[in-house]
Amino acid sequence: MSTAIVYYSMHGNSEMIAEKMAAKLDADVIRIEPDKAYPDKGAKKFLWGGKSAVMGEQPVLKPYEFDPDKYDSIIIGFPVWASRPAPPIWTFVNDQKSKLSGKKIAVFACQSGNGAEKAFDRVKKMIGIETFAGEMIFIDPKTRVNSDNDKKIALFCEKIKKER
Ligand SMILES: Cc1cc2nc3c(=O)[nH]c(=O)nc-3n(C[C@H](O)[C@H](O)[C@H](O)COP(=O)(O)O)c2cc1C
Question: In terms of pTM, does the model score above 0.90?
Answer without folding.
Answer: yes
